Amino acid sequence: MAGLIRRRARRQRLFRWVVLTLLGVFFLLPLLAMLEFTTRGGGGSFTLQTWRLLADWPQLRETYPNLSTGIVASLGQVLLTVALTLVLLVPTVIWVRLRLPRLRRVVEFLCLLPLTIPAIVLVVGLAPVYAWVTYLLGGSSLTLTFAYTILVLPYAYRSIDAGLSAIDVRTLAEAARSLGAGWTTVIWRVVLPNIRTAVLSAAFLTVALVLGEFTIASLLNRTNLQVAVNLLGKSSATMSVAVSLAALVLAFVLLLLLSLVGGGRRRTSPKETS
Q1: How far is Cα 55 from Cα 49, in angstroms, rounded to an integer?
Q2: Exposed/middle/buried for 188, CB within 10 Å: 0-12, 13-18, 19+?
Q3: Taking the CA of residue 30 as centre, how many other CA atoms within 13 Å lie in the half-sphere pointing to its CB?
């Protein structure tokens, strides 16, 4: 019996390694092909000229001004979208969970609604709104923050809601309130530290969505990274592929950091509670 269990465990480990290897090859081969393309010089030689130019910001800004403008615009959009999403969503979800549980389904429906609306349809509805936004705030690409906040609501809500479901938030809040803490203190110093991983997950998902969004920015005639890469591909395919690869690697690093933070949090939790 023990031998059968060991053989079954070995087969399961072998199966896991085979699946992981196949998935690794499936995902890494396109990335390696992109890397090889960006390091291909004349006559098939190896060169890092494209990556040196990408790392040299003053030279990149002079050589590809539209790309540098798109990078700066996307970074600003990332920061503003993350800030606006968390400021709006985190207190709202916590407050509904603690004080207004009957509205939870309504809030969930409203947050998940953007998933049911295609981006092209969403742009049609946003176009008249952005006409007024342009009139009031100007035509800055940073105004895309409002549209991106709507797009990221389903993913950020699910992440934060899952974090709240993993803890007994009502007991924590009642204990803090019995000790004289106000609701602001309960949210900021009691609940928020316990859903740190969920909040980071929402932030990283927001970063990944904003860096990869193209449809809304293009149809609203705004500039971001993907619009700049699309335009750059018509004149310099090597640089456009290099920028796309760098964005993919950045998203992977963010997800890796999230997994490390979540793993560290789970490892320290038993020590904290013992």
Answers
A1: 10
A2: middle
A3: 8
What does pTM read for this prediction? 0.81
pLDDT at 267 over 70: no
pLDDT of residue 264: 54
Q: Report the C-alpha dihedral over residues 248, 250, 256, 258, rounded to 10 degrees.
A: -120
Distance in angstroms (rounded) separating the CA atoms of residues 84 and 141: 16
**What domains are there in the chain, each with its CATH number?**
69-266 (1.10.3720.10)
Sign of CA dihedral 59, 64, 65, 66: negative
Query: Cα dist. 223→68, 148, 234, 240 in Å?
Result: 11, 13, 16, 15
172, two tokens: 């924590």
**What are 158's two structure tokens?**
């699910």
